[in-house]
Amino acid sequence: MFAFVPGVLDFENKRVFFRREIDKIKRESHSDTLNLHIKRSDIFTEAFAQLGHKTARELRGNLNVNFTGEVG
Questions:
Q1: pLDDT value of residue 41
Q2: Which end is more exposed in the chain, N or C (fewer Cβ atoms within 10 Å of the end residue's Cβ)?
């Protein structure tokens, strides 16, 4: 006979629900690449200026950072 363990089933249901929600967000995410062109000497200010007006949906895409005057 199996003993009842409180909370085990509840946790599993919550875990499955959480995983499905994460997968749904990934499917719905903005898939375009967000390109930043910034000077390394002013990285925080320039990154903030370019990202500050983006929506949460826009920020879910890939991020590509190019530093002015650098190759790579």
A1: 94
A2: N
